[in-house]
Amino acid sequence: MSPSEEFQKKADEIVRLTKQVHQIIDSGLEENYFTPEELGDIQGQMTALIEQGVFWLKQENQDRFIYELRNFLKWLVDFAESKKEW
Predict the structure, then answer these.
(1) What is the pLDDT of residue 85?
(2) Nearest to 76 by CA among 6, 30, 22
(3) E strand residue ranges, the chain
(4) Inter-axis angle of helices 3-30 and 62-84, to 10 degrees?
(5) How far apart are alpha carbons 81 and 58 in whole angstroms?
(6) DSSP state, residue 34
(7) Is the confidence at residue 2, as pLDDT, over 90?
(8) What is the pTM of this model?
(9) Residues 25-46: pLDDT tens digits?
(10) Contact 66, 17 (CB under 8 A)
């Protein structure tokens, strides 16, 4: 795979993961699923993710940003699913 193809593959993965994050958050907002406090928690985690993303992309390390996105997505899904247990 050429470097440009590899770059595009990683860029596509970042877009795919970002869309999944948006879908979960948008669904939660439409359904009033999260309390204002929980939204604050999510915002805090997203702020950290954005800071990490800026750092890793400046370092030209897409793989690490993909790792951070996957971790955030897992956290978000676990966070949302934990509400079902109540």
Answers:
(1) 57
(2) 22
(3) none
(4) 20
(5) 33
(6) S
(7) yes
(8) 0.89
(9) 999 899 889 999 999 999 999 9
(10) yes
> Are 41 and 35 a contacting pair, CB within 8 Å?
no
Q: Mind listing the pLDDT tens digit for each residue in 47-76?
A: 999 999 999 999 999 999 999 999 999 999
d(CA 52, CA 69): 9
Q: Cβ(55)–Cβ(62) under 8 Å?
A: no
Residue 7 · residue 62 · CB < 8 Å: yes
**For the chain, how are helix, strand and coil distributed in percent, rounded to 5?**
85, 0, 15
Residue 81: CB atoms within 10 A of its CB come to 9
So what's the pLDDT on residue 78? 94
Q: What angle do CA 54, 60, 63 make, to 5 degrees?
A: 90
Q: Residue holding tokens 């934990």?
A: 82
